[in-house]
Amino acid sequence: MACLVPRLIKDRVLEKLRENPVVALLGPRQCGKTTLAMNILEMISPAIRLDLEKPSHRAMLTDAEAYFDLHRDSLVCLDEIQRSPELFPVLRSLVDERGGNGQFLILGSASPELLRQSSESLAGRIAFVELRPFLLPEVEGRTHRVLERLWLRGGFPRSFLARSDRLSLEWRQDFITTFVERDLRLYVPRLAPDRLATFWTMCAHEHGQILNASRLGAALGVSGHVIRSYLELLERTFMLRLLPPLAANLGKRLIRSPRLFLRDPGILHALLRIRSADDLFAHPVRGASWEGLVIEHALAIFENWRGSFYRTRSGAELDLVLEDGSHRLAIEAKVSTAPKPTRGFWSALEDLEISEAYVVAPVQEPYPLGHGVAVLPLAEFIDWATQIAGGKPHPATGI
Q: Would you call 45 exposed, middle or buried from its count of C-beta atoms within 10 A (0-12, 13-18, 19+)?
């Protein structure tokens, strides 16, 4: 299924392979890493792939050094590397011995922090690239109908490409169950799956809100330490995002806790039992769900920029502030087809002296609000954001 959809980061992975001995392609389970890797291996010869979830493939690496030496002239792809962390010291030794680039492509379903041995053993030898579930520019057509489908079902390939909303939801529900009961036990063997599943659902109800770990702990009947460990685990397996507050000394009383988002809207909706576009339209999470969708697209495009939110106790607020050195811009997500930024939005722009801002909403056409602010459909925002992130001039706010 996923092979039908070209991925935006393919060229970046190829570039990193030309520049580094090891490239790690990281992302959540079932987001399309294997399909992308297979596509890349078809372009490079010789190349070989091992799936470390298969006992037969792991058995081939009983003497890993000898096996890799047998294929020393090939690009070796190791899929689901988190299942064999003992390989990292071997890779380091071989990389240092051979000295060339493009030796290993490793795929993993956990962040570099969770795969600690990769960052420690391969420091200076490895480049990390994150593959997200489908983004709007990757799916065929960018019509309102396609956007609604991506928003409701999320970007996991088998969910987005399912033949019906019902089959999509069933896939996501099965994914959640398997993820909690099997996948996360790689990192926390004594994990209580029922409790974590309940916590994940609680996070869905808190989507877009300021994190209150004490309240979550009291509701679940566990300590703050357990809540922090759950948050870290879901964040480092790409399920959760804790968006930090803007670090600024403005003489204002700022909110200092992060905001909690589930990274994929389809998973969010499955946890909240939202089955259809009609269900989503009537659900209180609709606005926050749209906001999460916009934020994930923005952070994917501005991947090297620092992202945060801004909120003061007096009511000034911005959904997302992006910073690259001295360049700072703001993004506001509004689910209305006639968005009207609040007084707090304009106050925040003044507080931070931001002269470039975008209100991303499900509108048909872009239009200016004045004072450097433009209202944009998500597809138009992506086009202009790609130009901005690439350092190109753009006319968006002067529409």
A: exposed
d(CA 105, CA 321): 33
Q: Which of 116, 120, 112, 92 is nearest to 104 (CA)?
A: 92
Widest Cα–Cα separation across the chain? 66
Strand partners for 51: 79
Q: Judge: domain 2-130, CATH 3.40.50.10950.
A: no
The answer to whether 343 and 331 are in contact (CB under 8 A) is: no
DSSP string, 266-305: HHHHHHTT--SHHHHHHSTTHHHHHHHHHHHHHHHHTTTS
**pLDDT one-digit tens code per residue, 341-397:** 999 999 999 999 998 999 999 999 999 998 889 999 999 999 999 888 776 655 445
Are the C-beta atoms of 357 and 332 separated by less than 8 Å?
yes
Rounded to whole angstroms, the Cα distance separating 232 from 238 reads 10
Which tens digit of pLDDT belongs to each residue from 130-167?
999 999 999 987 788 999 999 999 999 999 999 999 99
| Alpha helix segments (H runs only) across the chain | 10-19, 33-41, 55-60, 64-70, 87-98, 116-121, 144-153, 157-160, 165-181, 193-205, 213-220, 224-236, 265-271, 277-282, 286-301, 343-352, 378-389
Give the start-to-end residue ranges of the domains of the chain.
2-130, 136-398
Degrees (nearest 5) of the Cα angle 242, 246, 248?
A: 150
Q: Which residues in 214-244 are b (16+ Cβ under 10 Å) and which e?
A: eebbeebebeeebbeebbbbbbbbbbbbebe
How far from the centroid of its chain's Cα atoms is residue 317's Cα? Answer: 23
- DSSP-based three-state secondary structure for 262: strand
What is the percentage of the chain residues whose pLDDT exceeds 70?
96
Could you report the per-residue pLDDT of 92-123, keeping only the tens digit for each?
999 999 989 999 999 999 998 888 878 788 99
User: How many CB atoms are closer than 10 A to CB 380?
Assistant: 20
Q: What is the DSSP annotation of 175-211?
A: HHHHHHHTGGGGT-TT--HHHHHHHHHHHHHTTTSBP
pTM of the model: 0.94
